[in-house]
Design brief:
heterotrimer, A alpha+beta (about 400), B alpha/beta (about 230), C alpha+beta (about 400), A: about 400 residues, alpha+beta, 16 helices, elongated, C: 2 domains, 12 strands, about 55% helix, ABC_transpr_LolD-like (chain B), AAA+_ATPase (chain B)
Chain lengths: ~400, ~230, ~400
C-alpha cells in the first residue's frame, strides 16, 4: 500500500501544469462558494439579530393576538403571570409592551402611526433603544411625554417641544385621543417603522388606550439563544391555551424569507460552479488514465492486479482533491476570519436595502465551520465520481491489447 | 527438465469475421538456462506467441505448462500473481515507471511481493552494479538513455528471480552499441543467474548471439536450431 | 477553412472534447436558466408593483412626494389631464385622491393609505380587479363602497358588506370620519400593497375629505421603451409646479433590487465561465503539448507564427462556442418549459412581493451578456497556451 501511495503521489506531479490547474480550480470553487455563502450567512445573522432586538426572543400574548394585533386582545400584566414566566430557567428579562395603531397629526398633516407603550429602562437594557435618540431626550416612566421616530417627525413637521395629536380606537372600542408634548426624536433603522413609530411610557399608553394594567405583549430576553425552543415549550405547558407563545423565528418571517432567497441564489450558483468545475476535473482524471493505457498494460504484465492499479488511480484523484481542498481552505478560512473582524461598509442603494431590513449597512462575513465542511465534502464527492470512469476503463482493459 | 512446455497452441483473432491464425498449432518446449531467440518478420505471430507463453494473453486452444503447471487454466487474478512471481518481462518501450527512480523500478516487484528491505537493497545493488549503472540508481528514467533504460528493464525483470524472462524486441529502439551492451548483460545474467531467456527479434546481430533460434512464419515454427 | 480545421482538430481527442462540451452544455444551460429565473423574479416584482401601485408615470404637485400632505393637491387637474392626453404615447390617464387614514372596525384599527379612484378609468390602468377574491369592483349600486385586502379584512374581522370606519384629516385640517361598506376583497402578490391600501370611489372620498382636486394623476403609456422621453415630454408641457415621476423613481427599493440582481447575474456568469475556463486552459495546454511536433512541422512548411496563434485561438473559440450555443439552446428550452409549467419558489416570499410560482420569461439581453463574457474569457484564457505554441521553433 505504501508503495501505491508513493506511486500515486508522484503520478500527480507528472504533468505539473495540469495538476496545478485542477488544484486551482478546486481552490477557486471552494473559495468562491465559501466567501459568498459566509457573506450571506453573516449578513443573515446580523439581520436576525437586528430583528430579535425588535421583538425579543420570545413573546407572550393572549391567545390569537399576533394574527390581528387587536387592541382588544390584551394581557393582564399581573405578578402571578410574571412569577410563572420567571420561574422558567433561562429567562433573564421580561419586557412589557402595549401597542396600537392611531392616527398621528401635527399642524397640517396626519399619518397612521404605531403607538408603542414601553417600559423605557427595562426596554433599554435589552435593545439600547435610548441610544437611538437624535434630538431631545427619552421620557421617564412617569412622564406624560412621547418620543417619535425621525421620519414621522419630518413628515408631520414636528420637533422636540411640539405637541403630537393622537386619535384612535382604544380598548373595548373606547375612544383613544390625546395631545402629548414631544420630548425626543429617535432614528429607527427600518424605514417603514421610522415613519410611523411613536414611543410612549407604558403607563401613559395604558391610560391613552383605556387599558389600565394591561399590555399586548411580554417580550422575553433569555440567557442562551439555542434554548429558545425549550423555553417556549415549557412556557406553553405552564401557561396553557389562554396564552400565545411565539419565538423570534415566528415573529420575523420577512427576514427569514429574505434569507431563503439568498439560499436559493447560492444553491443555483454553487451547483452551476461545482457542475462545471466537476466536469473539468473528471475530464482531466480521465485523460490521465487514457494516456497511460500502455503503462497500465505493462504494470499488469509484470504482475500488478487490476485492483492495485485502480487503487493508484483512486488515490491520485483523492490526493488531488484533498490537496485542492487544503489549499482552498487555507486561503478561505484566514480570509473569512479577517473579513469577520473587518466588515466592508456599504454606501448608496446597497446601503438602503440593508437599512430597509433594519440592519447596519455593512457587509458582514460569518465564520461557519459547517459550511467549510460541506463544501469540502462536495469536492471530495466530485473526486470520487471522477475516479469511477478510469476504474471502469481498467476493468475492461486487456493486457495483450494495451501493450 | 523442461521449464516451459507448450502443446498444440492456437490463437485465432477475429474468429467470427475474418479469422487470422496468429499462432497455428504450435508445440514447443524450453529447458532451464536456455537463451532463445524467436525470429520472424513483423506480423509473423511471434509477439502473440510470447504473450501466450508469458500468460498475458489466453490461447484459443492448446495449453501452456510452466514448471509442469497448466497456466492456461488459471483465473485472471491467479495468472497475474503467477506472472509476478515466476516471469520477468522486458518490452520494446514503456518498460519503466517514469515517476520511479532506477532503483525503485528494479525493486518494484519485490516490494509488491513484500520482500524485506535488506533483501531488496542487496539485490538491487547487485543487479545495478551488474548492468553498470550503480552510479545512476537514484535517477528517473527520463534522465537515462534508451539503452540504459532497457538495461534497467532487464534488471527489473530479473530482480525477483523469475523462472524465465520474456523480452519482446528489446533492442528494437536501440543503436548497435547499446544493442551489444544489452546482449552482453543478458548473456552474462543468463549464465550467472541461470534464468531462461526467450526473446523475439528480427535483428541478425541479436540472432547471432542466441544459443537456440526458432524461426517463426505465419503462425508456425519453420525451423528450430540449437548451437 | 480555419473553422473547419478547428472543428476537425478538436475531435482528434473525442473523450476530452466530449467531457468539456458536456460541462459547457450543462453549465451554460443551468446558468441561463438560473439567470432568467432570477431576472424574471425581480422583473415580476417590479411589474406587479408598477401595475398595482404606480403605473408608468405619475404627476403630483411639487413637494407632495415628501410628506403626502393632503393639501398639496394638483391645481387645475382637468387642464393638466387634457395636456397630458395630447402626448402621442399616452394611453390612459387617471386621477386619484391619495391620503393617509386609519381604518377601523369594532374589533380593531389599522393605519392605511386610502385611494379615491374613478372606477372606469382606474380599471384600465391598474390590475387590482384581477386579484379580487370576493365581491366585485367598486360598484355604483352600493353606497360608499370600499375595496380592502384579504389581510386587512382578517385583521379587522370584516366580511363582504361589513361596515368600516375611515378616519382622516381633511383639507381644513379637521379630523373627520366616514363609514364605508366592503364591496370587494382582493389578494395581490404584493404584501406591502395589501397591508397598506384601501380603495374607494373618487367622489366619496372627495366629499369626506372636502377635496376639490386630486393629489395624483397616473398615466399608462403605449410604448414602455419610450418611458423617459414621454416623461420629459409631459414635464415640458407643464409648469415647474408639477412633478412628473416614472415608476423607477417611485419604486426606488425595487429598482435597487433589480440593479442588484443584474449585478449578481454578471458575477454569476463570470464565475461559471471562469470555472469552465480551468478546463479550457487544461485542454489547450494538452493540445499544445501533444502537437508540439506538428506545429513545428507546420512552421517548417511556412505557416506564420500568427497563423499558429490564431489556429489555437480558433480551436478554443470553437470549443467554447459549441458548448455555449448548445447550452444556451437547452437553457432556452428549459426556460420555455418552465414558462408553461411554472417553477415553485419557496413559499412565504409573498411578503417581499414574490409570487409562489414563477413563470420565467426569456431575456434576450442575458443571452447576449453570456455570449460576450464567454468570448472575452475564452480569448483571455486561450491566449497563454496559444502564445506558447507561437514560439515553437520550425522543425521536422
Amino acid at each position: 500500500m505504501k508503495q501505491l501511495i508513493k506511486l500515486a503521489w508522484r503520478n500527480i506531479w507528472r504533468k505539473r501544469k495540469r495538476s496545478v490547474i485542477v488544484l486551482v480550480s478546486i481552490a477557486f470553487a471552494i473559495i468562491i462558494t465559501i466567501s459568498l455563502r459566509s457573506l450571506m450567512l453573516g449578513n443573515g445573522d446580523k439581520m436576525v439579530e437586528a430583528g430579535v432586538k425588535n421583538v425579543g426572543y420570545i413573546q407572550v400574548h393572549t391567545a390569537d393576538y399576533w394574527k390581528d394585533k387587536s387592541i382588544n386582545d390584551l394581557l393582564l400584566d399581573d405578578d402571578k403571570l410574571i412569577d410563572k414566566i420567571n420561574s422558567i430557567e433561562g429567562v433573564t428579562q421580561i419586557i412589557p409592551r402595549l401597542q396600537n395603531f392611531s392616527l398621528a397629526a401635527g399642524d397640517k398633516t396626519s399619518k397612521a402611526s404605531l403607538v408603542l407603550g414601553i417600559d423605557g429602562d427595562n426596554e433599554n437594557e435589552f435593545n439600547k433603544v435610548k441610544d437611538r435618540i437624535v434630538k431631545g431626550s427619552f421620557f421617564t416612566s412617569k412622564s406624560k411625554k412621547v418620543v417619535i421616530a425621525e421620519g414621522l417627525a419630518k413628515y408631520l413637521k414636528l420637533t422636540v417641544g411640539d405637541t403630537l395629536v393622537l386619535i384612535g380606537q382604544g380598548y373595548q372600542a373606547n375612544v383613544a385621543a390625546g395631545k402629548y408634548p414631544i420630548s425626543g426624536i429617535v432614528k429607527i433603522p427600518n424605514p417603514q417603522m421610522n415613519v410611523m413609530l411613536v414611543y410612549m411610557p407604558l403607563s401613559l399608553a395604558q391610560e391613552y388606550n383605556s387599558a389600565f394594567g394591561m399590555c399586548s405583549a411580554l417580550m422575553l430576553n433569555i440567557k442562551d439563544k439555542s434554548q429558545t425552543n425549550r423555553i417556549s415549550k415549557e412556557l406553553k405547558s405552564k401557561l396553557g391555551s389562554n396564552y400565545e407563545i411565539m419565538t423570534w423565528d415566528e415573529m420575523i418571517p420577512e427576514i427569514l424569507n429574505g434569507l431563503k432567497i439568498d439560499t436559493t441564489v447560492f444553491t443555483l450558483l454553487s451547483s452551476c460552479l461545482f457542475l462545471i468545475v466537476g466536469f473539468g476535473i473528471i475530464g482531466t482524471i480521465i485523460m490521465m488514465a487514457l494516456e497511460r493505457k500502455k503503462e497500465f498494460g505493462m504494470l499488469q504484465a509484470i504482475g500488478l492486479q487490476k485492483s492495485q492499479i485502480q487503487t493508484v488511480i483512486f488515490l491520485e484523484s483523492l490526493m488531488l482533491g484533498i490537496t485542492g481542498i487544503i489549499i482552498g481552505l487555507s486561503i478561505a478560512i484566514p480570509f473569512m476570519i479577517f473579513m469577520y473582524y473587518h466588515p466592508i461598509p456599504l454606501t448608496g442603494d446597497g446601503a438602503k436595502s440593508f437599512e430597509a431590513m433594519g440592519a447596519e449597512p455593512i457587509m458582514q462575513f460569518g465564520i461557519k465551520p459547517k459550511l467549510w465542511a460541506l463544501m469540502s465534502f462536495i469536492v471530495f464527492c466530485i473526486m470520487l465520481i471522477a475516479s469511477l470512469l478510469p476504474i471502469q476503463i481498467i476493468n475492461k482493459q486487456k493486457v495483450a491489447e494495451a501493450i | 527438465m523442461n521449464v516451459i512446455e507448450i502443446k498444440n497452441l492456437r490463437k485465432i483473432y477475429n474468429e467470427k469475421t475474418v479469422p487470422v491464425n496468429a499462432v497455428n498449432d504450435v508445440s514447443l518446449s524450453f529447458k532451464a538456462k536456455e537463451f532463445t531467440a524467436i525470429v520472424g518478420a513483423s506480423g509473423s505471430g511471434k509477439t502473440t506467441l510470447l504473450n501466450l507463453i508469458g500468460g498475458i494473453d489466453t490461447p484459443t486452444s492448446g495449453n501452456v505448462f510452466i514448471n509442469g503447471k497448466n497456466v492456461s487454466e488459471l483465473s485472471e487474478n491467479k495468472m497475474t500473481q503467477f506472472r509476478r512471481d515466476n516471469i520477468g518481462f522486458v518490452f520494446q518501450q514503456y518498460n519503466l515507471l517514469p515517476v520511479l527512480t532506477a532503483k525503485e523500478n528494479v525493486e518494484f516487484i519485490m516490494e509488491l511481493q513484500k520482500k524485506p528491505k535488506e533483501e531488496r537493497e542487496k539485490r538491487v545493488t547487485v543487479l545495478l552494479t551488474e548492468i553498470g549503472l550503480a552510479d545512476k540508481i537514484n535517477e528517473r528514467p527520463a534522465k537515462l538513455s534508451g539503452g540504459q533504460q532497457q538495461r534497467v528493464a532487464v534488471a527489473r525483470a530479473l530482480a525477483h528471480k523469475p523462472t524465465f524472462v520474456i523480452a519482446d524486441e528489446p533492442t528494437a529502439n536501440l543503436d548497435s552499441k547499446s544493442t551489444a551492451d544489452l546482449l552482453n548483460i543478458m548473456e552474462e545474467l543468463n549464465q550467472k543467474e541461470g534464468t531462461t531467456f526467450i526473446f523475439s527479434t528480427h535483428d541478425q546481430r541479436v540472432v547471432d548471439r542466441a544459443k537456440r533460434v526458432i524461426v517463426f512464419e505465419d503462425g508456425k515454427v519453420i525451423s528450430d536450431t540449437s548451437k | 477553412m480555419t473553422t473547419k480545421l478547428a472543428w476537425r482538430n478538436i475531435w482528434r481527442n473525442k473523450t476530452r472534447t466530449t467531457v468539456f462540451l458536456l460541462a459547457a452544455f450543462f453549465g451554460f444551460a443551468m446558468a441561463l436558466f438560473a439567470l432568467n429565473l432570477m431576472k424574471s423574479i425581480s422583473q415580476q416584482r417590479l411589474d406587479d408593483a408598477k401595475n398595482l401601485q404606480t403605473s408608468d408615470l405619475q404627476i403630483h404637485k411639487m413637494g407632495f412626494q415628501d410628506d403626502k400632505d393632503i393639501t398639496l393637491f394638483i391645481p387645475n387637474a382637468e387642464n393638466v389631464i387634457q395636456k397630458v392626453k395630447e402626448n402621442a404615447n399616452v394611453d390612459v390617464v387617471a386621477k386619484r385622491i391619495s391620503t393617509n387614514a386609519v381604518a377601523a372596525s369594532p374589533e380593531n384599527s389599522i393605519g392605511c393609505e386610502i385611494k379615491g379612484v374613478e372606477p372606469t378609468t382606474e380599471r384600465e390602468i391598474s390590475v387590482v380587479q384581477d386579484f379580487l377574491v370576493e365581491g366585485s369592483y367598486l360598484s355604483t349600486d352600493m353606497r360608499m363602497p370600499i375595496l380592502i385586502s384579504k389581510k386587512t379584512a382578517d385583521k379587522l374581522k370584516l366580511k363582504l358588506k361589513s361596515k368600516i370606519i375611515i378616519t382622516l384629516k381633511n383639507t381644513q385640517e379637521e379630523i373627520v370620519g366616514g363609514s364605508f361598506r366592503v364591496a370587494g376583497i382582493f389578494a395581490t402578490p404584493s404584501t406591502p400593497f395589501d397591508e397598506n391600501t384601501v380603495i374607494v370611489n373618487y367622489t366619496d372620498l372627495q366629499e369626506l375629505g372636502s377635496i376639490s382636486e386630486p393629489q395624483e394623476i397616473a398615466i399608462k403609456i403605449k410604448d414602455p421603451t419610450k418611458l423617459i422621453e414621454t416623461q420629459s415630454g409631459i414635464q415640458e408641457t407643464l409648469s415647474a409646479e408639477y412633478e412628473v415621476n416614472n415608476w423607477k423613481e417611485l419604486l426606488p427599493e425595487l429598482n435597487a433590487f433589480d440593479a442588484f440582481i443584474n449585478m449578481v447575474g454578471v458575477l454569476f456568469t463570470i464565475i461559471v465561465i471562469l470555472g469552465l475556463g480551468f478546463s479550457l486552459m487544461n485542454i489547450m495546454n494538452m493540445i499544445v503539448q501533444e502537437r508540439t511536433h506538428e506545429i513545428g512541422m507546420l512552421r517548417a512548411i511556412g505557416q506564420s507564427k500568427f497563423k499558429v496563434f490564431s489556429m489555437l485561438l480558433n480551436e478554443a473559440g470553437v470549443l467554447m462556442m459549441i458548448g455555449a450555443v448548445s447550452g444556451i439552446l437547452f437553457g432556452y428550452v428549459l426556460t420555455l418549459i418552465a414558462s408553461k409549467v411554472g417553477v415553485p419558489i419557496s413559499s412565504g416570499l409573498d411578503m417581499l412581493g414574490i409570487r409562489p410560482v414563477m413563470y420565467p420569461k426569456l431575456n434576450p439581453e442575458i443571452i447576449i451578456m453570456v455570449i460576450v463574457i464567454a468570448k472575452i474569457l475564452t480569448v483571455a484564457i486561450a491566449s497563454i497556451p496559444a502564445y506558447r505554441a507561437m514560439r515553437i521553433k520550425p522543425n521536422y
